Amino acid sequence: QEDRMAILLRAEAHEALGTLDAQLRDLSGMLLQYRQALDLAEAQSWPLDGEAILYNLGNVFMQEGDHEEARTIFSRMLALAERSGRAENRFYALYGLMKVAHNAEQPALSNSYAEQALATMTPPPVFAAAIAQHRAFNLIALGDPAAAARQVDIAEAAIREGADFGKTIYSSYNTLLRSRLAEIAGDNRKALELYKAYSADRLRLVRDTFAEDVKSIRASLEGALEVEKARRSLAEGARAVAREEIRLQRIALVALGLAGLVALAAFIYQRRMARELETSRQRAEAANIAKSKFLANVSHELRTPLNAIIGFSEMCIREEMGPLENAVYKDYASAIHRSGRHLLALINDILDLSRIEAHRLELDESEVAVADFVGEACELVGGHAAARAGAIRLEGLDGLPPVRADRRLMRQTIANLLSNAIKFSPPQTEVIVSGEVRADGGIAITVADKGIGMTESDLAIALQPFGQVQSVMTRAHEGTGLGLTLVKTFIELHRGRLDIRSAPGAGTRATVILPAARVLAAAEDSPPRAVASGGRA
Question: How far apart are CA 330 and CA 387, in angstroms?
Answer without folding.
Answer: 18
